[in-house]
Amino acid sequence: MANLMRWRYGETNPVMVPVLSGFVIEIGDLVYLEGNNVRPASALTDQGTLLANQEMFHDKFLGVAMQASLSASTDPIRVATSGVFDLDCLSAAFEVGDLLGSTEEPTGTQLESQIVVGVATPNLAVGRCVKQVDPASTKVLVDLVSTVVRGGPQAAA
Questions:
Q1: Is 46 exposed, middle or buried (CB count within 10 Å of its CB: 0-12, 13-18, 19+)?
Q2: What tens digit of pLDDT does each residue of 42-69 get?
Q3: Is 142 within a domain?
Q4: For the chain, how many structural domains are there in total?
Q5: CA dist 111 → 11, 52, 105, 132 (Å)
Q6: What is the percentage of the chain residues whose pLDDT exceeds 70?
Q7: Are strands 82-94 and 111-118 parallel, antiparallel or unpaired?
Q8: Which has the minimum average pLDDT: 3-7, 39-43, 148-152?
Q9: Element (H, E) at 121
Q10: N or C: which end of the chain has fewer CB within 10 A?
């Protein structure tokens, strides 16, 4: 995906986190914390199933990249740990309050870095829908909350 500022409104409560050399992060990427470094969702090691990948990403979810990072850079980037973002989604209808989480690429082995899908439980979610989507659309407004920094959706599995 191209660098795309997806933030629409709300406090972003940003943090500055370094990027490990070799990882490319684009503006608008959903990112997670691995050790002391930020990585795009697509870099998460495959856990074998969509649900396991969603839960692992939820557990490490830091927020949304507000700055880009090239492969050779290790400079810290700004990451929004909260706020409402306009994200791509699999075509669906959503109600206000519906839970949304990460989804996999068609290969089923790698998470998408800028696409969400409806999920059934808080332990798979990174945020909630804040504007009804009906009829089905491929865009959704999501109130995202970092699990790592702000204690986002976290019901026990």
A1: middle
A2: 999 999 999 999 999 999 999 999 999 9
A3: yes
A4: 1
A5: 26, 11, 6, 25
A6: 96
A7: parallel
A8: 148-152
A9: none
A10: C
Kindly state whether residue 100 falls inside one of the protein's structural domains: yes
| DSSP 8-state assignment for residue 25 | B
DSSP assigned state of 59: H
| Matching residue, tokens 């709300």 | 10
State the CATH number of the domain containing residue 32: 2.40.300
Residues 6+ apart with CB under 8 A from 124: 51, 54, 55, 58, 99, 101
8-state DSSP, 144: E
- Tell me the C-alpha distance between 80 and 117, whole Å: 20
Judged against a pLDDT cut of 70, whether residue 154 lies above it is answered with no
111 with 53: CB under 8 angstroms? yes
Cα-Cα end-to-end distance for the chain = 31
**Residue 151 is assigned to a structural domain of this protein:** no
Q: Is residue 11 part of a domain?
A: yes
- Cα separation, 122 vs 147, in Å, equals 11
